[in-house]
Amino acid sequence: MSSNGTRDRIGGPHPAERWLKARVDPGMFTSERAVTVQPRPGVSYFLFVDETDVDEDAQTLRVWLIDRGDEESVVLLPRETSTSGRRWC
Q1: Would you say residue 2 lies in a domain?
Q2: Which among 64, 69, 55, 56 is positioned nearest to 89, based on CA atoms?
Q3: 9: left (phi over 0), alpha (psi -120 to 50) or beta
Q4: Residue 3: inside a domain, yes or no?
Q5: Which of 37, 39, 44 is nearest to 73 (CA)?
Q6: Going along the chain, which residue ranges are E strands?
Q7: Of 7-11, 15-19, 69-73, which gets the smallest average pLDDT?
Q8: Domains in the chain: how many in total?
Q9: Mean pLDDT, the chain, as a whole number?
Q10: Domain that holds residue 43
């Protein structure tokens, strides 16, 4: 975050990779995982991802930090969600 309290634009050509806490369950296929993320109370997203996009032991999902503010951040998910069809969270 910048010193004047505004949002920092992270994205650019190479957004920062981060790991977001998630519920990770087996998917329909061997290399697929069913993931639920809850970015804030009362809001959750469900998506299917490749097994390489999760850390099952840590129950986290790989995301890319696009924008960071004082209280919220915008991340890019590895795939579209089944609940909203968006890749932004």
Answers
A1: no
A2: 64
A3: beta
A4: no
A5: 39
A6: 8-9, 16-21, 23-26, 32-40, 43-50, 54-55, 60-68, 73-76
A7: 7-11
A8: 1
A9: 85
A10: 14-76
